[in-house]
Amino acid sequence: MTWISISALAVAAVAFTYSKLGYVAAQNLSLPLPIQGVAGQFVDPLSFAVQGNSGSFRNSSFKQVFNPTSSSPPFFQVFDPAFLSILGPNASIRAIASNPSFAFAHEAPIWNPSTDEIFFASNDGGALGNSDIDHNNVVGKINLADALQALSASGNQTSPVNVTVTELSLSDTIQMTNGGTGPHRGNLVLINSGRGELPPSIALVNPQEPHNSTILLDNFFGRQFNSLNDAKVHPISGKLFFTDVTYGFLNHFRPAPLLPSQVYRYDFDTGAVRVVADGFDRPNGLAFTKDGKTAYITDTGASGGFLGLNQTQPATIYQFDVDAKTEAFTNRRVFAYVDTGVPDGIQVDINGNVYSGCGDGVQVWNDAGTLLGKFFLGTTSANMAFAGKGRLVIMAETAVYLAQIAAEGLDLASFS
């Protein structure tokens, strides 16, 4: 295989490598390479297209990552020159908080612009989550100004830092938080999977102390949801769309399912709720393009909780048209199938590029479904959130990473 280290090449050499493959991206190749002490790899797709009879093949997408050079993460893995425009000339990625004994940073990342804090939830029912049918998970937050100050004071551009994670004291009506979005009209929107007979719910939570909360929805016409997973507000209509899946049951903290695994639409003003998409194995992450005309749903069917891992099941991102009148999801098609783990949480930037947390970190595609590159962590990321222009905060179970890049995410707080 031909693996090329970013730090070892000049731009001209990179341009030569990609000109052999027929890529036309001169505007990207002219950018300075994002070194900043972070290792990077340009990957020639033709170099691994044929492994041969004596090739070294992966047998598991869950236990083996695609890192043949055994580079130490975190680093940027570049499959297409367009990824350089996302990274920018001074890209860096570093851990800003970690706790090897506790999966404190699993899901539900929400950036609150007014305080520059990132909120998130610990693992609910999984490894190192310290939560189960008898114990709730926790929601925490990090002050990003503190993180940036610690990074600046560290004296180099590669060493991790470990800033304080503050746990929130929330109402016991909020059980097993797994998703989140907003802020919506000043409040965090928490998507809760429920625990035991305590129902899954959607809640508004004040990002300021005392973090008072209001439950908006906890049933579908009298039946409890299975275990709510993730959500986004539609950028045009302001309605909330959310996924419901069976992971609470599959992770032993919820009863047997009562409903199909599907996607719903909720009206903040009227309380009306309806199904907008079904036919999934395990619908998970959800995102919209900035014009609201296209939706993305991740299906993590290959990850089955106590049923085990099954690589023949979906690890797939589906793309849909959003009906202009009903907002039902139509014209389903495959957008991407991931090579490592499953695609979990999903975000879209202002240029339409799609980001998803996978088994090796965060993978990024353009709007045509071409894999551009990876924020390679060598471990699972379930979700990530943009925190203003040029900052991507990545959840990695026992760690939180901050990638300082050129890309800018959609302004989710404005979708009201």
UniProtKB/TrEMBL annotation:
Signal peptide: none annotated. InterPro entries: 6-blade_b-propeller_TolB-like, Oryzine_lactonohydrolase, SGL. SUPFAM superfamilies: Calcium-dependent phosphotriesterase. Residues 203-390 form the SMP-30/Gluconolactonase/LRE-like region domain. PANTHER family: PUTATIVE (AFU_ORTHOLOGUE AFUA_1G08990)-RELATED, SMP-30_GLUCONOLACTONASE_LRE-LIKE REGION DOMAIN-CONTAINING PROTEIN-RELATED. This is SMP-30/Gluconolactonase/LRE-like region domain-containing protein. It comes from Heterobasidion irregulare (strain TC 32-1). The lineage of its organism: Eukaryota, Fungi, Dikarya, Basidiomycota, Agaricomycotina.
